[in-house]
Amino acid sequence: MSFKCVKKFENSYDRYVVLTSSDKIILPDYIKKENKKFIEDVIKKNDFKAKSSEKIEITLQQDKKVMNLILIGLGEKKALNPKNTRQYIYDCLKDYTGKVLLNFADKDLDNMDIVADVVEHINYKFDKYLSKKKDKFLEVEYLTDKKVPKLIEGYELAKISNIVKDLINEHSEALTPKALADKAVDLGKEFGFEVEILDEKKAAKLGMKSYLSVARAAFHRPYVIVMRYVGNKASKYIHGLVGKGLTYDTGGLSLKPNDSMLGMKQDMGGAATMIGAMCALAKMKVKKNVICVVAACENSIGPNAYRPGDVIDTMNGKTVEVTNTDAEGRLTLIDALTYIIRKEKVDEIVDAATLTGAVMIALGEDVTGVFSNDNEAAKKLIDASENWYEYFWQMPMYDTYKRYFKSDIADMQNTGSRMGGSVNAAKFLEEFVEGKKWIHLDIAGTAFSNGGNPYYNKKGATGQVFRTVYSYIKG
Fold first, then answer.
1. What is the pTM of this model?
2. CA 341 – CA 408 distance, rounded (Å)
3. What span, in angstroms and rounded, lies between the C-alpha atoms of 384 and 386?
4. DSSP sequence for 96-123
């Protein structure tokens, strides 16, 4: 266990860490009076002001033991929020391993959720395929006077974030559609939600022709994953979640270049995100009813591949002209949306998808694009992100964008103008939500980090977004 709360301590630690604001540097009660005077002199000599991410290390002796004390600055209290507090703690702890006693000097700042989240984030490494595994970890005992809940939300969600990261970081030959379905079944048993798997025969019987067109050429066959969590039997209201589940995307016959294909193991990031949300909702026993659908498949090339110029049917009944087989995610999502609306009877939907490179052109790699037919719901979701190190921005959804996916031979085409590409994709999806309250999250930039973000600075999956979805549903 990398994190636990304690009321008192009796053990020796590799380090003693104190988090302090710059308003007033307060030393913990466990430091003896004579040592406090020594520490105050060191602070004064080194002009330590406890500015944000500033730290000072002091070695002293207490009770015949050497104590390595670290004071970490958080800056001014009035400027602190959950996001920058995480950053400052992460900045100062990220290179440490071993057993640490940690506490906030100011009890008003006491926040076990944030510390637990940071500790798990620091410890994570996807080393499954490395011959040398990570063998040194940060273990934190968190000193607090607060009542400790049975389940510490920040810690439980941080552990689930590791599951999300593992799914996205796993390579595509190991994480096939069938393997993803099997993993969902296992997680359902572990966390407490029901899972039903539909093979392609059942999907075909349901009329999911758009989704199955994308999957047509793949060696690894498609599976629809349906997850159901009942947290409130007295309520008839059902939240719907949909995740894009492309376990690999070659681009199809509109073949991607090699460099673009290298990262396509992450194209099921939406599925991992929503599976993570289901685990979190069930683990924390949230009193809401939620159903999640993932239409998992691969977009491959072969003699049976769907082609640019094809006109395909959808479960909804509308026809789509395929103008680019690399705009495949939306073709799987529209059938998943129809399924969750018509068969599962959900009242509202949030979907997450690594859908467009265009969203990264618009917002960069650190912000998730939010697209919705309900501004109030979009605002509520964005507000739900405030407790997490996650950023969201609502994008426009004007009907004028619809002109870009008009087709001469079908009800619509699957690609529009490159200008406003992420909005065009969202407007395409909107045609299939049948008037339900709906939020689309384009996570193409935020599901995976290239190492430039100051918090998500390890290359690989970030494990973002599922926490915000969880908080939105929890309310």
1. 0.97
2. 28
3. 6
4. --EEEEEEESSGGG--HHHHHHHHHHHH
Share of the chain above pLDDT 90, in %: 98
Q: Are 77 and 24 in contact (CB under 8 A)?
A: no
Distance CA 167, CA 467 (A): 16
Q: CB atoms < 10 A from the CB of 213, how many?
A: 26
Give the H/E segment covering residue 36: helix 33-45
Contacts from 69-73 at CB under 8 Å and sequence distance 24+?
Answer: 69/15, 69/16, 69/17, 69/18, 69/31, 69/39, 70/15, 70/16, 70/17, 70/18, 71/18, 71/20, 71/25, 71/43, 72/17, 72/18, 72/19, 72/20, 73/20, 73/21, 73/22, 73/48, 73/49
- Number of alpha carbons in the 13 Å side-chain half-sphere of residue 410: 18
User: What does the pLDDT look like over 400-434, one tens digit per residue?
Assistant: 999 999 999 999 999 988 899 999 999 999 999 99
Write out the catalytic residue numbers: 256, 330
| Cα gap 413→324, rounded to integer Å | 9
DSSP, res 222: P
3-state secondary structure of 19: strand
Residue type, 111: N
| Cβ–Cβ under 8 Å, residues 158 and 164 | no
Scored b (16 or more CB within 10 A) or e, 156-178 reads: bbbbbbbbbbbbbbbebeebbbb
Burial 390-412 (b: 16+ CB within 10 A, else e): bbbeebebeeebeebbeeeebbb
Supply the DSSP string of 272-298, one letter for each residue: HHHHHHHHHHHHTT-SSEEEEEEEEEE
Model confidence over 219-252: pLDDT tens digits?
A: 999 999 999 999 999 999 999 999 999 999 999 9
User: How long is the chain?
Assistant: 475
Please answer whether residues 273 and 173 qualify as being in contact, where contact means their C-beta atoms are separated by less than 8 angstroms: no
Question: What is the DSSP code string of 41-65?
Answer: HHHHHTT----TT-EEEEEEEETTE
Measured in degrees and rounded to the nearest 5, phi and psi for residue 227 equal -115, 135
Report the C-alpha gap between 78 and 93 in whole angstroms: 23
d(CA 256, CA 264): 10
Q: Is the pLDDT of residue 11 over 80?
A: no
The tens digit of pLDDT for each residue in 330-387 reads 999 999 999 999 999 999 999 999 999 999 999 999 999 999 999 999 999 999 999 9
